[in-house]
Structure formats: C-alpha cells, structure tokens
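PROTEIN–LIGAND DATA SHEET

This sheet pairs a single protein chain with one bound small molecule, NAP, given as SMILES. Inputs appear in the order they were entered. The predicted three-dimensional arrangement of chain and ligand is reported afterwards as a token string under its own label.
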Amino acid sequence: MSEIPKYAVMGNPVSHSKSPLIHSLFAEQCGIELEYRAIHVNEGSFEAAVRQFRVIGGKGLNITVPFKLEAWQLADRRSKRAELAGAVNTLKFLDSGKIYGENTDGQGMLQDIVVNLGKAVKQAKVLVVGAGGAVRGVLGPLLEAEPAIVHIANRTAAKAHELAAVFSGFGPCTASGLGDIRSAAYDIVINGTAASLQGNVPDLPGSIFADGALAYDMMYGSEPTTFLVWADNAGAAHCSDGLGMLVEQAAESFVVWHGVRPQTEAVIQQLRQ
Ligand SMILES: NC(=O)c1ccc[n+]([C@@H]2O[C@H](COP(=O)([O-])OP(=O)(O)OC[C@H]3O[C@@H](n4cnc5c(N)ncnc54)[C@H](OP(=O)(O)O)[C@@H]3O)[C@@H](O)[C@H]2O)c1
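PREDICTION REPORTED AS:
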C-alpha cells in the first residue's frame, strides 16, 4: 500500500495557521489524497526539521515567519521570483534529492487584487507601506503587472530606499519615509507593515486616496483591521484585508506541488464564515 503524501506548514508561531484547512479543502476539491499539518519549529532547528520531515515521507512545505529567509538559503534551486524576493514560502522536494524554492506571496496578492477584487494594477498609482519581508516578496509580481508607479514608504526610510534600489530595474519604483509621501492620490494603497498586528496604524497622511481607491491590508482577521478602519474614514472607496491573498498564495503553492490550480472563491467564502 502506498503512503499518503505528506505536506506541512512550518513556522513559529504556527498553531493559528489556516493553511492545513485551506490545503485539505483544495485536495478534496481536486480529488488528491494528501496529509497536511502545521509544525511548530524552534528557532535554530529549521534545517533539521525540514530534513526530518523529508525522511518521514514529506513532499513539500509552506514556510512562514520567521523561517522564509532560511528556506531561501536551504533551497538548491529557486524560481526567479523567489530569487528576487530573497525569501521562500514554498519548498518542493524533488525526486533528484534537490529542494526547489518558490515564493507565491506576490502572485497570491496580485490574483486577489486583480481577479477577486477587480482592481486593475496596470497603469495604477500604487503606494506600498512597509519594507519588510512581505513587501519584498510582492514587489516583483507587482511591478510585472505594469503599474504607473510603485512608491514604497516605510517608517525607517532607509529600508524603503534599499528596496527601491533593488527593484527599480523592474519598473517605476520610488521610496520615502512615511511623512515624505509626495503624490497625494494613489489608486491602490497596500499596507504591508506589521502595525495592524499591534492594533496600530502607520503614520500616513489622510490624503493619499484617489477617487475609487482600494485600501488593501495584507493582514486579516475576523474584524476589519485598524488600517482598514482608518482607510475607510480617510476616504478609501474600497477596503480589503489579506485573507484572499492567503488563499491565493496557497493555491499557487498547490500548483507547484500538484500541477493543478484549485478554485479559490468557495474556500475564501468558507474561511470568511
Ligand atoms: N495575507 C498573507 O498571505 C500575508 C503573507 C505575508 C505577510 N502578511 C502580513 O504582512 C505583514 C508584514 O509582515 P513581514 O513579514 O513583512 O514583517 P517584517 O518583515 O517584520 O516587517 C515589518 C514592517 O512593518 C513596519 N512596522 C511595524 N510596526 C509598525 C508601526 N507601528 N508603524 C509603521 N510601520 C510599522 C516595519 O517598519 P520598520 O522597518 O520601520 O521597522 C516593517 O516595514 C504582517 O502583518 C503579516 O501578517 C500577510
């Protein structure tokens, strides 16, 4: 009897992760038999945990905070997106014994904004707030979608400038501190900071939203995030959290492992309930 292929998400903390539920719903929908669980890994033990998972029949892993950089280092081969992102959220164990690394966060966010929310990125003026791992992961796919401009604004301005220097070769990309945002009107404002986690809002001018603008928070929760409450009051026409991004990045990981893209709409609705 052949063993059920094993998949998992590794992180710390990870018990809150919705990935096991998302991947089991995808698997059921596609008629693929698999086992998917969340594995808590202590800092300093990531590489050993990955090797151990492979020994027991693991086929692939999702990687979340704080191990995306270590996953990037561990991968023998990486996609162009992962290479640019400097972080990996999906590992696939190849039959050759090598490990392939991909980053699906940016593609997941684009799919959610363009397809699920119906907001065009092409020719849009986009403000990205934050300059941490999540923002670095989405800038490549965002610039591939040919916006008019991507402006990166971060509390620590130097980090925003570093990212703009890396990504300006891929499309129009500028940077500043939060208080120095020049252009008044953006079509899409993406909060990629960890501020909502602490119930805070980045210190932004209230005049950043163009008519019909979308405010998008990569964070999600059962209630609107503090950023989305602020954006609604500041005049954003549409507000969305990052739950759709979570499901769409998972769907992209599913493609990497199984070669088939599951339907996401029903899964997003199920998670919202
Ligand atoms: N939906 C999804 O699928 C998905 C996927 C990935 C990440 N995320 C979310 O994205 C967010 C960022 O994650 P990350 O991995 O990029 O974190 P990170 O690498 O730790 O970066 C944190 C960023 O937030 C900024 N920041 C933190 N507190 C702030 C505050 N009070 N005011 C203004 N800026 C603040 C930091 O600015 P400084 O540089 O000045 O410190 C930095 O730019 C998290 O909420 C995470 O849950 C969602």
